[in-house]
């Protein structure tokens, strides 16, 4: 049984909401599908719906309303006060149920739970805890779970049996249902139950496109305050060009990296250092481009950083490319961009090719009628890496799945935008998995580009994108669940 993780579910729901099928619609769909299953299985009878104070409880309130509409005799026990219910769809649906004169008994403590209700019903709907549960059931949920299990009534659990931890699939004390009605996909640990999976209307686009859900679970600097601090990114670039590595480095800072070091040839290094006091710049040995003598220095720098972004503004001196070829295998987490994207390079980690660079690497010209997602997925699978293909729209793939980026605009076809993107990828990759970093970076980069375009139209520059990154992060990073 292919289960969906809690984080995947939250991402799908957030992207669904972003694409217009809102949390409230998902809850209505979930409740409706569950009620339809119950009506198909159980003739009209006395139903007790036990609701928690989260969205699982919200689902229960929808089921209660729809069963009353179908002529069932329904009573609701809310394990808490209405004032404790999660604001949003759950609270709305509980208020609707109360407004329809459905008896809703508030039980904030075990003693307030009407035990007789569990003996005087034919069917119990378990809507106490869903994917928001973790650990050991606290009171009054714990007593309610026991009363449900001791009851002779049939039991149907919504999404998962309350008390089952969907992160681990384990349960210490959980409801033993006759049926679990799982929403969208099974959760971990449901193998041992009778499960009916119902579709709750999550749009295909929530799976195939990036959205705010791709930011859920992304680790940031605040997650590492006491663990050696946030991400440390090394940018290896510069030579003929100095703007490119600067954009990458500043974008990484704007995306939450803690330390960003730029290793560049001497002349470029002094110019880059003059752009911003924020940058830690490490001049290398040669005046104009990176050479093999730099490898020992680069090796030491690589060891001192979580991730490396290499290629921006590098130039294509044969000796430079030979040096890059030698250092790439030394990088555990690497974002390979621009001039470093050569067919004979030991590519791995994340690559960020534009359309021409992808053609150079894959021999594939992706035209408007090509299925870019499939081509990029095939290339990523063949080479065992994550590709962030900078087409319009961009496509991200790890070889198994692919996502089309949902943000960005034509104004971003401006010098430096790709370097900004590489910096965002590098900052996220310091502390997150490659595919997640690339999807999140594509989304944030395009969102920052959209804000810059909104502000300056085709007069936007890559530096305008830089300034918008923190605003894009603030706008879309769902710090708290809905
Ligand atoms: N998100 C959506 O749009 C939809 C979600 N669906 C349903 O919602 C749940 C997930 O909802 P969530 O609010 O995240 O959490 P829960 O309702 O599962 O539980 C949160 C609730 O439980 C309390 N809690 C957490 N741990 C414990 C514990 N150890 N003991 C006691 N109580 C605990 C916590 O305080 C909260 O009050 C998902 O499963 C679906 O059923 C919709 O189906 C679709 C839309
Ligand atoms: K449940």
Ligand list: ligand LP7C6HRI, potassium ion
Second rung of CATH, namely the architecture of the largest domain: 3-Layer(aba) Sandwich
Strand content: 15-25%
CATH homologous superfamily title of the largest domain: Ribokinase
Q: Given the C-alpha coordinates, what overall shape results?
A: elongated
CATH topology of the largest domain: UDP-N-acetylmuramoyl-L-alanine:D-glutamate ligase
Q: State the total count of DSSP E strands.
A: 18
Taking all Cα atoms into account, the compactness measure Rg is: 27 Å
Number of domains: 2
* Mean pLDDT level: 95
Helix content: 25-40%
Stretches with pLDDT under 50, minimum 5 residues = none
Largest sheet: 9 strands, mixed
SS-based class: alpha/beta
Helix count, per DSSP?
15
Overview in brief:
It holds the Pfam family Carb_kinase. With 482 residues, the chain is of the alpha/beta class. The chain is built from 15 helices and 18 strands.
